[in-house]
Amino acid sequence: MILPSFSDYMKFSTATLATCAAIMWIGGAAIAPFGGPILDRYGRKKGILGAVVITFVGVALQTSAQNGAMFMVGRIIVGMGVGLGSIACPTYASEIAPTKYRAFMLGFYYDLWYFGGMVAALITYGSAQIESTWSWRLPSVFQAIPSILCLVLLPFIPESPRWLVSQGKEEQALKVLAITLSNGDTSDSQVLTAYNQILASIAYQKENPASQSWLAVTKTPSNRKRTVLAISVAIIGNLSGSAIASYWLGSMLSRAGVTDTYSQLQINVALNVWCLACAGAGTFLADTIGRKPLAIGSLTFAFIFLYLVGALTKLYGSSTDTSAVYGTVACIFLFQGGYSFGWTTLLVMYPPEVLSFSLRANGMAIYTFVSYAACVFAIFIMPFALESIGWKFYMVNASWDVLGVAFVAICWVETSKRSLEEIDEMFEVEMRHSTENIIQAVDIEDDKTSCVQVHTMCPSNEIRGGEKTGVPETVAKPQD
């Protein structure tokens, strides 16, 4: 949208330009309610395939657009493909990855968005010199490349073992676990332990009526907490201010004193390279640092520099002092780097971890809907806010980030270095203890002498210190 040729051809006003930026996320939000049922019924791989096909259609329309309306229709369909992919891919990655690689796989899923942004920025920088509509059509064509790669690789990857178990295909699930954990050895103890945990967890969830519908996200205290934590990632992460640099970098740089189009494009390329490096570092350290400290530290660093961006824009926004301009640009880089180090990694790492299998597809659909709705709000509001209150908007946004830090510190639970089934157990144990405390308080108040015991099934048979926890050990071999 920085390209003058695009603006001249489409003749968008500020309002329609904002709509054009936001409409892709509207498409993603629109398809989100259908994503969960698609994944649960047809499987994780077919959900990814559906996303690829939808994206192809959108790219074709966007590239061949003859007017603004056609371009927007293409973008909304691309958004639907991206939205379905945002549900299917993290769900699949979280369920297929061994515990020690889960942070790496989920983290790099979103980190590579910066790689895509860097490639897109380079393509746009090169195509800006084309003196025709291909200066903006060419970047549109290149959007199809990731989908082509997915289409080529999809036949060679296995289905989620957890989804296979839920469909009664235990033997296939065991083989997939053996492939991912022990080079195909189905008798390996690590494979059998993981297999037993998955059997026990999914059997428990199937026996629990509260976990079998869309309403499951609100039916139990444990499910409500899981859903709130997943949604919090969408709201805090997408309203942190990162969308300013992602979608309105041109306006941001113009207010800082950088008005040349080519200079803005060069900064855009450099910013994506920087953010990719920061996000990659955060992904590698996610298990070492832990999810909560990573989220708190990243957002704290980000809001400090967002405050500084606001202050420098106020003081030197109309100045010709190059050192002041460089200082503002440096703060923009540090803000985005701080955000990328933690939150880019956590955006699709944390939600599928805190959601149990029975909630994961629908929960990720809700997360995606809220995430895209937040993006629409941020993208559509920001240009008007920047025009209306200027530097003060950065201050408001930074203050919101302070509240986000407080919420994470108080409410989030730590999920690093735990299997998905261990995380399930952690939530159930936490809710059991909460229930026991309430019952004990009632007993004391009523002066009861009876001992009330609450038994909660924890869906795991993990061996710890020589003792078994949770449900009894299940069979280690699949049923034919």
From TrEMBL:
NCBIfam families: SP. It comes from Penicillium camemberti (strain FM 013). Residues 1-416 form the Major facilitator superfamily (MFS) profile domain. One of its GO terms (cellular component) is membrane. It is a multi-pass membrane protein. The keyword Transmembrane applies. It comes from the Eukaryota. GO terms for molecular function: carbohydrate:proton symporter activity. The chain crosses the membrane at residues 12-35, 47-65, 71-94, 106-128, 140-157, 228-249, 269-286, 293-312, 324-350, 362-385. It holds the Pfam family Sugar_tr. It is found in: Membrane. This is Major facilitator superfamily, general substrate transporter. PANTHER family: HEXOSE TRANSPORTER (PTHR48022:SF31), PLASTIDIC GLUCOSE TRANSPORTER 4 (PTHR48022). Keywords: Membrane, Transmembrane, Transmembrane helix, Transport. Belongs to the major facilitator superfamily. Sugar transporter (TC 2.A.1.1) family.
